Amino acid sequence: MDRRDFLKSLLLASCAGVIGMPQSGFTSEEAPRPKHAKVPPLPWGYKELDPDEALRRGHLGYMVGE
């Protein structure tokens, strides 16, 4: 297969893809969007974080992972 045959087959394949695309359902009307349900509240409360404790735990966890 030379370069000319390769380019010809590539062009034919891409044209077939473009011509076949409207029949594949991409151009049909939009599907109805689902209605969103209300988000339930979280089952846990917010707890204030200590930045120094988070730093210490993160550093120790990183060292263990090595």
Briefly, what is this?
The protein has 66 residues and is an all-alpha fold.
> Could you give the count of β-strands?
0
Residue share in helix? 40-55%
Backbone structural class: mainly alpha
Radius of gyration: 29 Å
Number of helices: 2
Alpha-carbon distance between the two ends = 52 Å
Major β-sheet annotation: none
**Percent of residues in beta strands:** under 5%
Spell the H/E element sequence: HH
Mean pLDDT: 77
Principal-axes shape call: elongated
Instruction: Pick out the low-confidence regions.
Output: none
Task: Summarize the structure in words.
The protein contains two helices and no strands. The mean pLDDT is 77. It has 66 residues and is an all-alpha fold. The two termini are 52 Å apart. The chain has helices spanning 3-20, 51-65. It has a domain at 1-26.
Give keywords.
2 helices, 66 residues, mainly alpha
Blueprint (SSEs and pairs):
Elements: H1 3-20, H2 51-65
